Amino acid sequence: MKISKLFIQESIIISTVLMLTLSNGLLKRPILFFFFIVLGCFCANKKIKIQFSYDLIKKSLPLLFVFCWCFISSFWSQWPGKTLYELVWQLLLYLYVVFFIATFLSVDNVKSIRILSVFWVVLTFTLVLKNDLAHGRILEISGAFANKNNLGPIIGMMIFYYIFSINRWDFIRVSMLCCVFFLLLMTLSKTSIATTILILGVSFFLNNGSKYFSDKARLTFFFPIRLLFWVAAIILPILIITNHDFIFSFLYTHLQDDWLTGRGRLWLVMLNQSFGHLLYGMGYASVWGLGDNNLIQETELAKYSIEWVDKLAASDGGYVDIFIAIGAVGFGLFVFVIIDFFKTYIHIITLGKADKYTWLGFCVGTFSVINNITETTFLLAASFSWFNFIFAYLLLKAKVLIDIDKKYE
Q: How far is the C-alpha of 311 from the C-alpha of 302, rounded, in Å?
């Protein structure tokens, strides 16, 4: 029996997302490396995909600058070997998503995402039935994850993927969407629920509402917004770098211990521990994931809250962890990437080129940005949220290459 190349590529797309969404740690690094090699070979087999991948990398230079700063931070990192090792995997994930995008846009992605959605819904409901309902837990479900805050964001983002895959709605498809949304409500993850509803409303207005504007009206409405993002992209990173001491002082004096279910106390302790390294950071990947050498082990929390500290794998605040690890300089560069993401989206809809791919990129990217406030997900190679942000960022850049630059008509 001959297996087609298209089937292999679609299977890798489906398998990648399933492994990232069903439980933590399923997408092992050897598997990621294998998928990277396979998709890389398929892309290398077609000259246009190689050229597309190269152009996509050039379009995403702001993200590469962040990776460059992560590399530079190895020179003062307490654990330079760990910094470089994690950076290699981070770059491999980035290149894998480049190949993933090149493949995603060349296969029947709507069919692939629809198949993925069905598999994911069946498997997730099975895991919830086994791990939650069977033990009498109807609310605050977590499936195969440690807690509801891990499952909630995944359900929210999978709702966007499912909506993307539907060209024509009928009773069965609407019912399936209602079941998934009901599953989200059962997590009682307030941030995920509110963020999903908010993004659906905003994206519908921007993506679909803008189509009813004339070209002149659209330019008039969106030009000030686009100009604002341009100004923010220039000014905000500079302000962050030059005023990092003020930012630290502001956070230290205004953060409350009980803010966001106790995250405030953890953030204050971690920021205080990194004082003196605020400009350049402690070094990428040199704060967490080091066992007994985690930065938090040197704090007062490790003395008085031993059981809690031993369970921690991050500060549960992605931007706090980025600030601590790569400093104000790295954080400023990362803020530029986020602004560039939104600026690219506004650029696309201003020119009237918004479509379902633009909608998907905006939804999953925006959700990831918001989710990273209360969960440490960015710059982690095995995080679905971080994978989604890179995917969304590159997807919007790909739409610029195809629909605006007209390089791949």
A: 11
CA distance linking residue 347 with residue 221, whole number of Å: 12
Q: What is the pTM of this model?
A: 0.93
Q: Which amino acid is at 284?
A: Y
Q: Specify whether the CB–CB gap between 141 and 182 falls below 8 A.
A: no
Among 69, 83, 27, smallest CA distance to 289 is for: 83
Which residues, 6+ apart, have CB-to-CB distance to 393 below 8 Å?
60, 63, 337, 340, 341, 344, 361, 365
Provide CB contacts within 8 A for 54, sequence distance 6+: none
Residue 328 in tokens: 């104000």
pLDDT of residue 1: 44
* Cβ–Cβ < 8 Å for 218, 373: no
Residue 353 · residue 404 · CB < 8 Å = yes
Neighbours of 130 (CB within 10 A): 12
Judge whether 346 and 226 are in contact, CB under 8 Å. Answer: yes
Query: Cα–Cα distance between 391 and 409 in angstroms, integer?
Result: 21
* Percentage of the chain modeled with pLDDT above 90: 45
Please say whether the beta carbons of 53 and 99 come within 8 A. Answer: yes
Q: Phi/psi at 381 (nearest 5 deg)?
A: -65, -25
13, 114 contact by CB (below 8 A): no
Contact between 325 and 281 under an 8 Å Cβ cutoff? The reply is yes
Q: How far is CA 147 from the centre of its chain?
A: 19
| Residue 180: band (very low, low, confident or very high) from pLDDT cuts 50, 70, 90 | very high
